[in-house]
């Protein structure tokens, strides 16, 4: 009898949690919408892992609020003492504190510690696979991409706008710098930008005076038409031009990429 | 007995409240020193005038000493000594500020350098607190004439001295950072 | 016996007849102060070809204006004169006019703060409506220049954080109720506190006026080095926030000291009410972190004016970021801790049930306070070295444990209770729900790989609005209803209260719940124009946001109506046991009819004995 209330609650909670978990399993692959890089998969699996563990906590609270509204409400608003008066319940406290410690330490070890380790291990490994190097220069308000291994100083499309093109399946190392190649005399011209490719599941701030690197392997052929998440976007406010500081990105096959490189070279030769 | 309890309580509240304020006001100094450590390549500029700096520090210490004597005076009910002591301390503080103003005005230290940045920030902040301190010392010395402080009741004097010593400490730390380290 | 009378002649010998209302005089003196400061700067630096108002002259002028304003609203008579030993000639009017000038009565100050921060909430809220209106279309159609939009975002954020979040509960409800709840007649530094209030409208007006000096782009965080190259509006951002944080420091100093020293007899540390614990912990946070951000802003201001290279590519960009978030994360706990405390203040009363595990609830508040200074860098996962993420991820996870204690106590109290489902209870339950979502989404942000994707997107926007609106604003409204009978002696309308509570709950979750999805879909922050594929959801979010805005205004109208015209309420309508209910409503000038002696804790409902007595023999304790 003493546990009747708790049993009812637990049953409802279990049912709601089960339904929520089943629904979540269905949308799991798209919970972060569109992810096509090694880094992004780490983030996506961490996101899904956290979600499936946080759903029971959320349903606990949601069911509790509704349960309190239904089962624990007074018939009217005249003040009278609750029939049950508890000051503490050591098992409940022990369970609560124990579970919250256990969960938090688990989240810290997995996914956080494990994923950071995986990320670094991948980076070290990829460094030895002679990755494609892309120098990314952020200025107000433009992304400039250059490919030093191919002697391309600024990759542009037919309209002369900056574009980023990457071959699928090959490790890429981005070197991120915030500087204005056209105003190098002005030390106040550089601000923080943030290099974000939503579909790659990663962003890195570009700090004036520092060089940051970023490793990843794109694993699908894609462009803006495939998903609008395939784009380069500045994510840190950098002045009035911030909303327009984006650039198209396409991930292509190795063959298309070498054609594109040849095309860029010819463009550059014409320009020079 | 009961009255003393209430009075003591009120005094204790002022005293501790003021100390809490001073601890809180130490945060800006801590922040500058913390920031300063973050900057690489800090140095004491050879253009910094050691003699002027040392003179300033001496004036600071002297004015602290004079203000402290003033507190001792009111503890023995020598009201006029206290008033004069505070005014003298304020004058010494003002001289210190004038020396600072002279250094700022002549721009011995170029503001655009790393040392210049730290120099003007530190002296600016401690100078700001010193201006407030001088104002408080003068105000309390006038207040003392109208509101008779006694050896039993002189919280206002205590508070002014707390603040004066606080800003002197900040100023002396700034001196050490600017001329010695 | 008034011991201070000897040292502070406050016998109003020559009551001054003011020719001008204090606020008007404040404005006038502020104008004079600005002109003086501005002209002084021009006189020192008479460059031809400079405009009349430059960035440095605006700063000096602003300092003059602030001085003039503070002296004008009553600081001259009430603070400067007594400081020099003259009798204060300030007479507080005994009618409505006392709310429009410097006051030393903590209840008046509390209401002044509540009014000011509600006004700021309205202005910043209308600002948010403009932002949402702009975002209904993927291209610019309302604002004409993206700098305009970004200024709107910055003003909205800064006003909400420094004028509402840190103010409404701490300076507003705290000033009014903390002395009542600990059985004090007055606060320790009451004049300082009275002056402090007038810094708030000054700071808010400065921020609102900032576009006059040019649109600034940085949002509420003032990130360097962008701030250095921004137009002059940036200067008013620093100065406005400086004034508002100073106001908070004064309140915190006053309330912390009052809590420590002016408690009634028998009000031991073990008996201090939960809300008072909440205010004490945030006061300590304020006293450490508000000066920290002020100094950081002074340095940023200097490096903008001189200019210096503290925070640009030559200095250290990350120093500013660290210094900002070192304050910025404690700031959000400053905002939310009083709310956590208020849940457990109100739930036992509404359920007439013992507060479950009171000690754990208090320990939770204290540990959140201590840990809050150790988590800041999770705001910087995208710009710090990867090896540095690990410890901050740890502390960020850990801080959810003491936060959870507040939930534990609340649920333990609710369990098997007979909860009176009044408007405050309903809003508290909603707040528990909302803050849980805010907290759980924080777990995602604590994990660096996920953070690197959702950082700087609308996911984060949704997350912090869930904690701040969902946690703090909902609880603030709940507390307004709960304490309305005490503030005014009148009762609100239960039906309307509940309808409006459900209204804002729907509006809030519709607005910010969808923002999580927007963030995951790739909507980044600080953009008045965005890729068109995000339009439909943004359009929907905006509709919900307008709905929410109407709901808030509805609450405000309802509370104002009840305050003035509502049915009279009984002395202690909720049967609460804390001390503020042991006096008439609204409380008299000296708060209580006599000295109080507390004899037992306030959160026990398994007996019928009062928690405090009036001390019969007055001479014993006065």
General description of the model:
The complex is a heterotrimer of chains A (272), B (181) and C (622). Chain A has 272 residues and is an alpha+beta fold. Chain A folds into two domains: 4-70 and 99-126; 132-271, Sandwich (Immunoglobulin-like), CATH 2.60.40.420. Chain A is built from four helices and nine strands, in the order αααβββββββββα. In chain A, the strands form two sheets. Chain A has a five-stranded mixed β-sheet with strand order 3-9-8-5-6. In chain A, helix 1 packs antiparallel against helix 2 and helix 2 runs antiparallel to helix 3. The radius of gyration of chain A is 26 Å and the shape is elongated. Chain B is mostly helical and 181 residues long. Chain B has one domain: Four Helix Bundle (Hemerythrin (Met), subunit A), CATH 1.20.120.80. Chain B is built from five helices and no strands. Chain B has helices spanning 2-38, 50-75, 79-106, 114-146, 155-180. In chain B, helix 1 (2-38) runs antiparallel to helix 4 (114-146). The longest helix of chain B has 37 residues, at 2-38. The radius of gyration of chain B is 18 Å and the shape is elongated. The model of chain B has no long low-confidence stretch (mean pLDDT 88). Chain C has two domains: 1-102, no CATH class; 103-579, Cytochrome C Oxidase, Chain A, CATH 1.20.210. Chain C is globular. Helix content of chain C is 64%, strand content 1%. Chain C has a two-stranded antiparallel ribbon with strand order 1-2. Chain C is built from 19 helices and two strands. Chain C has 622 residues and is mainly alpha-helical. At the A-C interface, helix 2, helix 3, strand 6 and strand 8 of A face helix 5, helix 8, helix 11, helix 13 and helix 14 of C.
